[in-house]
Amino acid sequence: MPIDYHKWDHIEVSDDEDDTHPNIDTPSLFRWRHQARVERMEKMQQSEQSFQFEWKEWECDYRKVEQDLNEAKKANDDDKIVQLEAKMNSLKEKKRDLDKRKEELDTEKRKQPMNVDTLSKPGFTSSRVNKATLDHEDRTKDMSEDEKAQRQIDFNKKSGANIKEFGMMKKPADSLAFLTKNPDLVCEETANYLTLWCIDLALEEKFALMEQVSNQVISMQYILTLGKELKLDPRAAVRPFYDRQAKANPEYMEVFNDEVNAFRGRIRKRAEERLEEAMKEAEEEERQKRLGPGGLDPVEVYEELPADLKQCFDTKDIQMLKDTFAKYEPAEAEMWLKKCVDSGLWVPDKNAAAKGDEEGEEQVYENVDDHDSVSNGNGDT
User: Which residue, 252, 286, 320, sits at the end of a domain?
Assistant: First the structure.
């Protein structure tokens, strides 16, 4: 069988095999040529990786819609069937676009001339990556909640400054470059850190910055989710994600922006809840501080008092208070006086209170009508 030599027709010769003019800096020329060739190869590789990512994503979407459509047909849900069939047709159209792109990539790849870098590739290579270092879920699934919390704290101390820098980036290209340089940030801890930061910013009413950071939260969650669904190291999903954002596909960006806006709504709601919780805690702390000797809240007791007794405390008129108590039935006067004493609204006669026994306390209430056991004290609210 004759040997086909046509595959050797397009070989890009080594950089140092060309003759150059004496006035040309040959080493620099060779370096520029090599750099240009490497950049072309990297661009081709990135295009292939982006295509493979989109292809896997399409497969996941297609399987999910197909499954949902079968379930809808079993349930005879006509409205849902119509929606899912429309999605299915859209995915089929996307499949045709992907097939076309694949042909274009294959054609472009065949046109690429072979060179010293491709010809000298080793016949067999073996690269192994420890899966536990790539799959965040595997690293944390056996951890207790305390261990996860400690892991988050340690990560925050180590990478907090870098996370904040990433959170304030507005351009996708800057985010891509930063995550490429700092791949350790592509993890759930970064999303957690940014989420809590968003809540703090909302509490501080720094809504413009909160909205910017929230965009980065959803970007990170998209990267992590896509990596998980496609069973890839999430770091491998970074470039394809930002490539898709750069294309600004209207349908894709609409879904992404809806996610961002929904997240911002949840952040605002959580910030309001945190504020309400803080106010309740402050109110309860203040209430505990003002409890009277009997454990009652003077504010609550004051609100319960009849109007005439309230007027006595408002005017701080001790004689009016004694006269008002005298108008009540002994049992009712005893009830209100006890509440006032237990809340600290009214201080009984020090000698009677100092006894601390039932006899002394009873004497206070028995003599209410005579005004003898009520102190000339302050009666302050």
Answer: 286
